[in-house]
Design brief:
The protein has about 140 residues and is an alpha+beta fold. It is about 30% helix and about 30% strand.
């Protein structure tokens, strides 16, 4: 039996989505919407109830598993902002060293507060992540 895809893309109603964001994160979420739009040149889409994505890519692993996911994006979680850089496997150490306070896992960057990081460096990181991803999978704007 095929595994059901739980996270799919849908149009984003900016005002409605922001109204549902925790008030403590709402201004940061609005700023991230603008920042990602500026960095990618793409319109945001909703991926599941809380992730905002920019672009998409389809993948197929050697195992045969395949799917589609957002190319980059974010989610304003209660404890931290989750920034999705996606699995291209690139080394972003030089850029990350200039960002400001953060923690990193495979493909995901966590920031406690947006005002503690350099937004120009974050834009550079978003672009670098997309370029890295595009070397492995075709990336589409919508």
């Amino acid at each position: 039996m095929a595994k059901e895809v739980k996270t799919t893309s849908a149009p984003l109603d900016r005002d409605a989505w922001l109204a549902g964001v925790d008030p403590k994160r709402r201004d940061e979420a609005a700023r991230l919407l603008d920042l990602f739009t500026e960095a990618t040149g793409w319109e945001p889409r909703l991926w599941g109830p809380s992730m905002v994505g920019f672009g998409r890519y389809a993948y197929r692993y050697a195992s045969g598993h395949s799917g589609e996911s957002l190319a980059t994006g974010f989610s304003p979680r209660k404890a931290e902002l989750s920034i999705y850089l996606m699995p291209g496997g690139g080394d972003f150490g030089a850029i990350l060293s200039q960002l400001g306070p953060h923690r990193m896992t495979t493909g995901c960057l966590y920031i406690k507060r947006l005002d503690t990081v350099d937004e120009a460096v974050l834009r550079e990181l978003i672009r670098a992540g997309l370029e890295d991803l595009a070397r492995q999978w075709p990336v589409q704007p919508v």
